[in-house]
Design brief:
The mean pLDDT is 86. The protein contains six helices and five strands, in the order βαβαβαβαβαα. The chain has one domain: Rossmann fold, CATH 3.40.50. The chain has 147 residues and is α/β, with parallel strands linked by helices. Helix 2 packs parallel to helix 3 and helix 3 packs parallel to helix 4. Strands 2-1-3-4-5 form a five-stranded parallel sheet, sandwiched between helices.
Length: 147
């Protein structure tokens, strides 16, 4: 499995390389969003881990670009700073999960990968179920009048 790790911290990148050993994993690292975008254009990835706060290209912009290049790429966001609004925005943009740094063991990373795999095994909502859910949803609020 080819895993893309995007983080400006060299220790975090090294932690992934050591925690996800070959031959099962091939870890490709990028020090910033631009390097990640270049890598994603050149090769497909099984999964990506992307830091939220980086110079040059932040995590949200990197996420937007990665999912545009590889629409089926599951991206797990990483952060040492819990900014809930940004994490929620990342999930809306296309991230599948997020994890907090610092990591204590490889189990932190593997646990995030396992959670994603388990969610993929859940039965998808059928079109009929989607219709029923939409019909039972409350109507949207009326638009606000601006002065």
């Amino acid at each position: 499995m080819r895993i893309l790790v995007v983080d400006d911290d060299p220790l975090t990148r090294k932690f992934f390389e050591v925690s996800l050993p070959a031959p099962e994993f091939q870890v490709v690292t990028a020090a910033n969003g631009l390097e990640a975008v270049k890598a994603a254009k050149e090769t497909p990835f099984y999964m990506a881990f992307c830091d939220m706060i980086m110079p040059i290209m932040d995590g949200l912009d990197t996420l937007k670009t990665l999912v545009r290049i590889q629409p089926n790429l599951p991206v797990i966001m990483m952060t040492a700073y819990a900014v809930e609004d940004d994490l929620i925005l990342a999930l809306h943009i296309g991230a599948v999960d997020y994890i907090y740094k610092p990591f204590r063991t490889a189990a932190d990373i593997l646990g995030a990968m396992e959670r994603y795999k388990k969610r993929q095994q859940l039965k998808p909502v059928t079109e009929h179920e989607r219709k029923l859910l939409l019909e039972s949803a409350p109507p949207p609020p009326p638009p606000q009048k601006t002065s």
